[in-house]
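Q: I'm building a small set of examples for a reading group on sequence design. Run inverse folding on the following structure and report the sequence directly after it, with nothing in between.
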């Protein structure tokens, strides 16, 4: 049925919400499996493919944070990269894909310590901040994410330039969150 993928995504989202409420590992496993099934129906140039890639990647990232499985994190990064290619410059969800991939790379940096992952995360987050202009509702989150990764790099390199930029970005985020 042409709506089966959408129904699978909706059911997966419900399991995901219940997982967030209860912490049930079974709900998380069901979420991952349902998102996998939906993605299998959204092949090639299907208009919902980028959304399905994004949803499965987020579920795998959640499971990685719970279990520490590097296989989940590596698959998450692969899916996030593919979703980003389907959301080129000008796509309304590009900022979300940039942020998600950057977060997964930052997770891998924190686990494995690869500066390449940290540098790529910073580059992606800079693009996210550029997309999230002053009136964008996610600007504060983007500023915080970039500041966090810059602070990670400061911790590795001791660069005062990174620390100064971290402070500037966090000040802006605090100003945005003043209301």
């Amino acid at each position: 049925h042409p709506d089966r993928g959408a129904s699978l995504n909706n059911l997966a989202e419900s399991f995901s919400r219940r997982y967030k409420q209860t912490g049930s590992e079974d709900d998380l496993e069901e979420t991952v499996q349902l998102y996998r099934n939906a993605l299998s129906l959204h092949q090639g140039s299907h208009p919902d493919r980028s959304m399905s890639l994004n949803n499965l990647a987020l579920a795998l990232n959640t499971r990685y944070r719970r279990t520490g499985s590097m296989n989940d994190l590596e698959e998450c990064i692969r899916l996030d990269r593919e979703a980003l290619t389907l959301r080129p410059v000008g796509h309304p969800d590009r900022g979300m894909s940039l942020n998600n991939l950057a977060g997964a790379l930052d997770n891998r940096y924190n686990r494995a310590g690869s500066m390449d992952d940290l540098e790529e995360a910073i580059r992606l987050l800079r693009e996210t901040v550029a997309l999230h202009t002053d009136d964008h509702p996610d600007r504060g989150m983007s500023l915080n994410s970039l500041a966090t990764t810059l602070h990670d790099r400061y911790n590795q390199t001791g660069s005062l330039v990174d620390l100064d930029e971290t402070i500037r970005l966090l000040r802006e985020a605090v100003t945005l969150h003043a209301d």
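The mean pLDDT is 96.
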